[in-house]
Batch of 2 targets.
Target 1
Amino acid sequence: MLVIVRDEYESVSKTAAQLLAGKIRRKPNLVLGLATGSTPLGLYKELIRMHEEDDLDFSNVVTFNLDEYIGLPPEHDQSYYYFMKANLFDHININLSNVHVPKGMFGEIEINDLYVDPKIDEFCQWYENRISHFGGIDVQVLGIGSNGHIAFNEPGSSLGSRTRVKTLTKLTKVDNSRFFEKMEDVPRYAITMGIGTIMDAKEIIMLASGEGKADAVSASVEGPITAMCPASMLQIHRKSFTIIDTPAASKLAAEFVTYS
Ligand code: F6R
């Protein structure tokens, strides 16, 4: 794992964008795994700038998003599909038929903590097959939850898990409630790539910014590899980059080089 500490969020975003842009220029049909949330917004802004000013071409890039809330249609302003369109896809020359965001709507379905409708399982298998069809994910972008989650793989998630339904923890619902009018509107379930799915990506770029992520970053980079911190699995990935700002790095014991 290569840990890169930058002095501010903007440099984190620019470093990640430069890494990705280089990969897209070398392989125009790159298979790119994408994340939502606040952290990658600066990266997406920089990729849009590179598209507009430096001719970065997305026309053959294929994307797979990590996750989607169950119960939100794509046009809902809090769905991850909507987020991706508003913050990236609408501003670059990506072909929307190359874009994959797990679907959140399944018509009439039954779902509770013990029973998942087979329609959802079928979709999850299709998503995994679709990733394989494109030869696997070349680079996966990740954020990290304040509890160490990656995608919606909350603490306790199976380390070998594949795309499936997860119940959101209380902490994640509280963290995400800032985007909803009231707490009751925050969805209870999501479809998410599993930790095994993420680990199959050929490269991983995990981003984190701010002091609120310092504990999670320290557990992921220096803690034991444990299901209680899903991001700690990145320690055994063959090629992962953790790009963070100084506040997010503030609880790391080892000395990492800070680039300004
Ligand atoms: C988003 C996702 C989540 C976020 C994480 C951090 O697709 O899967 O794991 O990456 O919750 O979110 P932010 O960046 O908003 O702090």
Note: The chain has a mean pLDDT of 96.
Target 2
Amino acid sequence: MIETNATVRVIEGLHTRPAAQMAKLMKKFGCNIELVCRGKTASAKSSVKLMLLQVKEGEDVLIRAEGDEEQEAIDHLVSCLGDPQFGMNMDQAPAAAHEVQAVHTQIDNGSEVHVCEGLKGIAGSRGTALGPAHVYLPQKLVAQRQVIPEEEISLELNRFRSALAGLESKLSRQSAGQVEGPAAEQDRAILLALIEVAQDEEYVGAIIRGIEAQGDAGAVTLRVGEVLAATFAAMADDYMRARAEDIRGVTRQLAAALLGQTLPDLASVPPGSILVANDLSAWEFSKVPIANVKGLVCIGGAATSHVAIMARTHGIPAVLGLPLSEEELQSIQCLAVDGDHGEVILNPSDAQKTQYQTRMEAEARARKGLSAFRDVHPTTKDGRQVDIAANLGSLGEIELAQKAGAKGVGLFRTELLFMQGRSLPQEDEQTDVYHQLATAFHPHPVIIRTLDIGGDKPVAGIDFPREENPFLGWRGVRMCLDRPEIFKPQLRALLRAAVAGNIKVMIPMISDVNEVHRVRALVAQCEAELNSEGVDCASFELGIMIETPAAVLQADALAAEVSFFSIGTNDLTQYVMATDRANAQIASLYRTEHPAVLRAIELTCEAAQRAGIWVGICGEAAANPDLIPQFVAMGVTELSMSPASILSSKKIISEL
Ligand code: PEP
Ligand code: MG
């Protein structure tokens, strides 16, 4: 037996992907090999055990091997543990490089040596770009007037309210895809987050109080926005810190309207540009003609900031947190951006340009390789076919899904339709949306989920009680069954749109068989009413989401009642693990790859197979490259995911 010590350099430690890859590599050696950390031991050949060991970046571990090839196995493991990039792949957000370091840093990533030739920032979105700089540096907004006379307070409050209403409606229209703007689901979620900031009591309340204390609306908005943004910027958690950017973005828009100033036009970014900014909010980025942007470089920002998420969604290489002054930014003509390593070369030499060109060509070839999967209906090497469908929230996202070759829609979240307006959508409006969606994907199935709204996400037009535990409260089908005046128009709209022939309907948050019976009774009642009114309609297949432990444990009984199961791993994980999916403090427990959650998924698949119904997955885990093989092995035949993940998931399945 031999032992050796090593320090783990893998970024963010041995989480899912590095653990899975490590176990795979170690299985090739004949010896037993173990990792010991904080007194706990795990076989290096078991990815689950490695994950449960929760080895962090920077921790020291003891490696112990016994048997054939023990020395080779240890050497190999030591080199994996010493590689910061070990286990990363193209689909993963690159890890943040926190330290700022200039020229000539050598990073040994095992197979190739990377030499940093430029400035180092934070890797925000992968890929390489080269092009002319389009520098966006809006002038600082300054309020000339600070104090207002007492008699102007109510006028000033009105001015603020109308500026706020204007911004809210602009953001809502943009998120609904009604005006030119982003189509991707991620972008929409980000715009909704900005609306939340604009409606936040902490923010709006403080501004109103400032105006009531005789403050100029513009001056108060700038002050409140900066104080709140600074509070977020000082937080320890990366994600929370990045929210400062959202607050600044909303503040800039509001203050500009109140001060009568126009912000520089981002719509005029010329094709092929590298967009260079001090700080770019998600709101600002959403106004840029995305196809014109080849790369993004910012002084501000972090890997988890919304602008980085948007860049990743659109495949735009991005480096954030670059150590430059605004003056230096102004003087940039051309840039080379390395989003993999978080590096930027300012005004690159001819040799450097050629080197970046070559890399870009190689990336384009790889992308092209992936686009070959667009029309592939993926089948594993042992002949299992898996449908890859899209998760959508609005009609604006259809094009993205079709470009990625989605085989229908596995989850259409109808709540966005209910959240975007100031009142509930009427039956006719809903019929129209569902019918358009079905027609766009015909003949592939389109699965529309009935309203899944809860006390944590209020909707204008539905009164929610205050609840101690909204996630355990009046949400999804529970609310719908209590409020037939809201539920029936949706069911009627679905029956009317079902004449398209490819609509299936699924019910969220099922925890009791009786709920399915009650939904079926309401559907029958709606169908009878439509028939007696002479309105064209058709029946649809009814399925349910499996996202509560109760549904898993009664899966046999439920399978007898419905046509399909779709596993909502986002909620199933939070309910199985008793871990709020939105609580960053306990995020380490929120893991779909936890054996308990995987067992729940397996039980569901077994019950579906016994009953002869199909089972899909529509939670975020459906696109997790580490979990896809397990899901397929369990018998899942449909994976539904955001359009950006479709091509790479098709490739993974085809190579299984
Ligand atoms: C889920 O819970 O996995 C799911 C798909 O639904 P949502 O994320 O909308 O709750
Ligand atoms: Mg859910």
Note: Residues 153-175 form the longest helix (23 residues).
